[in-house]
Write a structure and sequence with these properties.
single chain, alpha/beta, Peroxisomal Thiolase, Chain A, domain 1, 2 domains, 5-stranded mixed sheet, 11 helices, 32% helix, globular
C-alpha cells in the first residue's frame, strides 16, 4: 500500500462586496494612491460592513462556495479548522459555529491563530490529521475581518489590511501528490513589533484603552518588513535545498500577500520568473489568514496536476515558514 499523503482537492472563496480604494483612503488619512501602490502594491481592499457580521460570516460563505463547486456532502467532513486572528469572540470558537452552519454535523472543529502564518501552519495541521489515516476530509478555512481591529486614523495600518476568506479541502492521496515537506518557525521576541496589545488576558479592555485606541492592531513597519523579507526568502530556499529542487522544478510560488516588495524579494531569492508568482494583493490587500487560500482559488484554473507549489508566509509572533506541495488535480 502506498504512503498516504494529504492533498488539496477543492477550493472556495468569499470577498465582501464593499471596496475600499486608495482614492477613498486619501480622504481618510494623509496618503495617496502613488505612495500606497509603490510601497505595497495594493490598489483596493474589501471590507465587511454589515453590523453583526464577523469572521464566521466570511468563513461560512467561503466554505459553502467550496461545497457547491466541488459537490461535497458536508456530512462527510471530519474536521473543520478555521485559521484566524480575528475570531467572532474569545469563546466559543469560530470554527464550531462555522461547522454547524455549513451542515458539517459529523465534524469536530477548532480555531488556529498564528497571525498571517495561520493558514500555513493550518496546512501542516490538516495534513497531519489526514496522514494519520483516521480522517478522510479536513476543511481548512483561512478567514479574517481585519477591519474590526484596524484604526482608520492610522495610515501605517489602514492602507494594508482587508477582509476575506478562502477554503480548502484536504483528502488522502496515494499518488505522491499533496504535502511533501515543511519548514515552520516562530520567534516570540518579535511579538512587540506586530500585535493587538489589548483585549487578551494580560491586558484586558478598559474604558481608557478604548478611548486611546489600544484595541487596534499596531506594527513597527520597518522591523516587520526587514524580518519578513529575510525569513520568507530564507524559508523557501531551505525548502528547495533540502528537497534538491531548482527554480526550474517550481511551477508556482504562493506567498502571503502582505507587501508586493516582500513577495518579489522572495521570488528573486528563489530565482523565479514573475509569471510563476501568484499575486492578487492589488485587489484584496493583506487579508491575513485568508491570503494563501484566496490565491489558490484565484489561480485554480491555471494549476495543473503535478505542479510544484511552494508556499511561504510571515506574520506576527514572529511566525514564518514554507511548505512544498505537489498539486493534486487539474480543474475540469
Amino acid at each position: 500500500m502506498s504512503k498516504i499523503t494529504a492533498a488539496i482537492t477543492a477550493t472556495g472563496a468569499y470577498l465582501p462586496e464593499t471596496i475600499l480604494t486608495n482614492a477613498m483612503l486619501e480622504n481618510m488619512v494623509e496618503t495617496n494612491d502613488e505612495w500606497i501602490t509603490t510601497r505595497t502594491g495594493i490598489k483596493e481592499r474589501r471590507i465587511l460592513k454589515a453590523k453583526g457580521e464577523g469572521t464566521s460570516f466570511l468563513a461560512i460563505k467561503a466554505a459553502n462556495d467550496l461545497i457547491q463547486k466541488a459537490n461535497v456532502d458536508p456530512n462527510t467532513i471530519d474536521l473543520v479548522i478555521v485559521a484566524t486572528a480575528t475570531p467572532d469572540m474569545k469563546a466559543a470558537s469560530t470554527a464550531s459555529y462555522t461547522a454547524t452552519k455549513i451542515g458539517a454535523n459529523n465534524a469536530f472543529s477548532f480555531d488556529m491563530d498564528s497571525a498571517c502564518s495561520g493558514f500555513l501552519f493550518g496546512m501542516s495541521t490538516a495534513a497531519s490529521f489526514i496522514e494519520s489515516g483516521r480522517y478522510k476530509k479536513v476543511l481548512l478555512i483561512g478567514a479574517d475581518k481585519m477591519s474590526s481591529i484596524v484604526n482608520y486614523d492610522d495610515r501605517a495600518t489602514c492602507i494594508i489590511f482587508g477582509d476575506g476568506a478562502g477554503a480548502t479541502l484536504f483528502e488522502p492521496n496515494e499518488e505522491g501528490l499533496g504535502m511533501r515537506d515543511e519548514y515552520l518557525r516562530t520567534d516570540g521576541n518579535g511579538r512587540e513589533f506586530l500585535q493587538v496589545t489589548y483585549g487578551g488576558s494580560s491586558n484586558p479592555i478598559t474604558h481608557e484603552v478604548l478611548e486611546s485606541g489600544g484595541h487596534y492592531a499596531f506594527q513597527e513597519g520597518k522591523t516587520v518588513f526587514k524580518n519578513a523579507v529575510f525569513n520568507m526568502a530564507d524559508a523557501t530556499t531551505k525548502i528547495l535545498e533540502r528537497n534538491n529542487l531548482t527554480k526550474d522544478d517550481v511551477q508556482w510560488l504562493a506567498a502571503h500577500q502582505a507587501n508586493k516588495r516582500i513577495i518579489n524579494a522572495t521570488a528573486e531569492r528563489m530565482g523565479l520568473e514573475s509569471d510563476k508568482v501568484m499575486m492578487n494583493i492589488e485587489k484584496y490587500g493583506n487579508t491575513t489568514s485568508a491570503t494563501l487560500p484566496l490565491l489558490l482559488n484565484d489561480y485554480e484554473d491555471q494549476l495543473k496536476k503535478g505542479d510544484t507549489v511552494i508556499f511561504a508566509a510571515f506574520g506576527g509572533g514572529f511566525s514564518w515558514g514554507s511548505i512544498y506541495m505537489k498539486w493534486a488535480y487539474t480543474k475540469k
